[in-house]
Amino acid sequence: MVQKYQSPVRIYKYPFELVMAAYEKRFPTCPQIPVFLGSEVLHESRSPDGAVHVVERSCRLRVEAPRLLRKMAGVEHVVFLQRNVLNWKERTLHIEARNETFASRVAVEENCSYTVHPENEEWTCFEQSASLDIRSFFGFESALEKIAMKQYTANVKRGKEVIEHYLNELISQGTPHIPRWTPALVPDDDARSQAVLGDSGSLEVDGPSSTQDPASEMVGTDGDKLDADYIERCLGRLTPLQESGLIQLRHWLQETHKGKIPKDQHILRFLRARDFHLDKAREMLCQSLSWRQQHQVDLLLQTWRPPALLEEFYAGGWHYQDRDGRPLYILRLGHMDTKGLMKAVGEEALLQHVLSVSEEGQKRCEGNTKQFGRPISSWTCLVDLEGLNMRHLWRPGVKALLRMIEVVEANYPETLGRLLIVRAPRVFPVLWTLISPFINENTRQKFLIYSGSHYQGPGGLVDYLDKDVIPDFLGGECMCNVPEGGLVPKSLYLTEEEQEHADQMHQWRETYQSAIVLRGAPHEVTVEILEGASVITWDFDILRGDVVFSLYHTKQMPKLGPREPGARAGGQLADKGWAPVTDYSRVEAPLVCREGESIQGSHVTRWPGTYLLQWQMHSPPGSVVEDVLTALHSPGPRCKLLYYYEVLASEDFRGSMSSLESCTSGFSQLSAATSSSSGQSHSSSLVSR
Q1: Are 130 and 159 a contacting pair, CB within 8 Å?
Q2: What is each CA distance from 525 to 614, 643, 650, in whole angstroms?
Q3: Where is the CRAL-TRIO domain (predicted)?
Q4: Which of 18, 189, 372, 549 is the most buried (most CB within 10 A)?
Q5: Does residue 438 share a domain with residue 314?
Q6: Helices 650-662 and 428-435 sit at what angle, rounded to 10 degrees?
Q7: Measured at the alpha carbon of residue 401, what is the angle toward residues 396 and 402, in degrees to the nearest 5?
Q8: How far apart are CA 254 and CA 221, in angstroms?
Q9: Is residue 375 part of a domain?
Q10: Does residue 483 carry a pLDDT above 90?
Q11: pTM for the whole thing?
Q12: What whole-number distance in Å separates Cα of residue 80 and Cα of residue 102?
């Protein structure tokens, strides 16, 4: 595979003639570049009027590679052939270089150019491109490629420093200015020969050669090029290879993409998301651009107007900036009724709102870049989890959250600079186990999570937010205008017809299973747990009647009914011969669930074995419990429910706890309390309407 490098435009704020004088001081040796051992002129020629000066050199470079590789190659230095064409009249210098050593095995080609700045003739521009093609090298092709690219990019950076060093030396020695070239008077015969050579000289300078003219490899017209000062000022400090990746991807888009070309900051985010692997970043960016075009995302900020209900109950909003100048977004997730919002506005409206926040975040980053005079490409999100409980584990809500994470990760990579999570409750590790596999590893490393009051004091929010920005509800001095959220009234829910139209009911039915509970005939689901410290989660809606929910641990596998794996069609828990405590025990306190209620809960198991989730009809005190046969054949009352359960394996749960501990501060107490398997089991259920 051929490796390519393309530099941005580097600008010297000195006239071309002075820069050329500094460049010539690099030869025949240059102490400022230790790997450059020296050079000798092979051929030199000038046009009759002195306007064009051609120099061909042989340059020796020391090989900086492991001793074993140098020994196998049998060389301590390599030779490059360089051809410089300096045109004083046009004020240009074109440089071509290629390797002579190992030319049959390795092909290195480089093109450089010095030209006058298009908008300021007293400044000089420098551009550089190169390619590396390793055909074979004693089985060390991969190692050689890494060494070569590392050394080359190091020398690229050093090259500008050397020119600036010699510029300063010239000025300090009393040469701050060198006059421009003027044509000399020549005899008539020489003038005629010069006229004949003019065209050939022109071909020699600008015409085809064994290596493509560097000007044709550049990004495009002068207005389309990126200069190094702009990159550092607006995009941040990049390595030479990172600059090259940005320029190549930008160039490719300009040549192939038919729609709107993304801003440089946007392109750079995709490169960072793929560790500057050009092909992977290009694939990711192309998919995102197609998605943006399909969903008209570029017009979202102009067309999207959140429903009044969202503005009132969506507990999130922008709030100044953090200490690094990043825009700050606050989300009071624990106070937000995600289930109510989904039932009132639908999943698509919530997704549109999240996308509008992401679009607004990019816009604010651009504004802060201009305001603070330094590159700001990401924002900080502060998430308050006070009030987070099992109702936030409502499965359609969790699935919607995972979908939003997937969309944002794919189309807004590297936009999150830091995520501060405060007041994380004990239920948070369960939610984290569900969502963390869908979050990119680079993103997870930006999470800082605090339980209880650990966010207060040194090491907490004050390390990232100024005191006068910390919101009042977190003990700060700043009044925060972010909506407080709260329960969405059921009267504002979409009707079933509206939900059917939005395809929500169909999606929810696919998530849940239905069950009928008769008097004396409970519905039971068996769950086999192979290892302690696994987590059983449940989520069910009572559609008709009142039921009692319990969780049991048994020492033997119950007989299953014919309807579904793991579920019994009916019958008593205590089969013939079963005895409480000896054969089974209750591990979750009975919970009376009323008609219309929605229940979410979880249980961290203490022992392996079989667990039973049981729903039985609620009987008022003093009522007679019928047997199974009577219940099945009598037209008595029935209860109906929709339920969903899931097991988070011990390995996954403990792995998520480890990932929490690796990206958190002040979280150890919560981590220990939640993941403990040597003490009592942890369980909870919550009625969420």
Answers
A1: no
A2: 7, 10, 20
A3: 306-482
A4: 549
A5: yes
A6: 100
A7: 100
A8: 11
A9: yes
A10: yes
A11: 0.78
A12: 10
Concatenating the DSSP letter of every residue in 619-661 gives --TTPPPP-HHHHHHS---EEEEEEEEEEE-HHHHHHHHHHHH
pLDDT in tens, 554-612: 877 665 554 444 444 444 554 545 666 677 888 988 999 999 888 888 898 988 889 99
Task: Examine residue 433 and state whether it is found in any structural domain, yes or no.
Answer: yes
- Alpha-carbon gap, residue 361 to 378, rounded angstroms: 8
Instruction: Tell me: do 244 and 337 sit in the same domain.
Output: no
Q: How many domains does one find in the chain?
A: 4
- pLDDT at residue number 135: 84
**CA pair distance 56, 518, nearest whole angstrom:** 96
Domain containing residue 615: CATH number: 2.60.120.680
Contact 382, 420 (CB under 8 A): yes
Look at residue 365 and tell me if it is in a domain: yes
- Which range is most confident: 377-391, 545-559, 630-644? 377-391
Domain span at 265: 228-295
**Beta carbons within 10 angstroms of residue 152's beta carbon:** 17
Q: Which residues pair with 128 in a beta bridge?
A: 112
Q: Which tokens belong to 605?
A: 């198991």
- In this structure, what DSSP letter does residue 227 have? B
Q: Nearest-CA neighbor of 644 among 428, 275, 285, 398?
A: 398
Residues 6+ apart with CB under 8 A from 480: 319, 330, 471, 472, 473
| Tokens read off for 389 | 């409980």
**621: which 2 tokens?**
């005190």
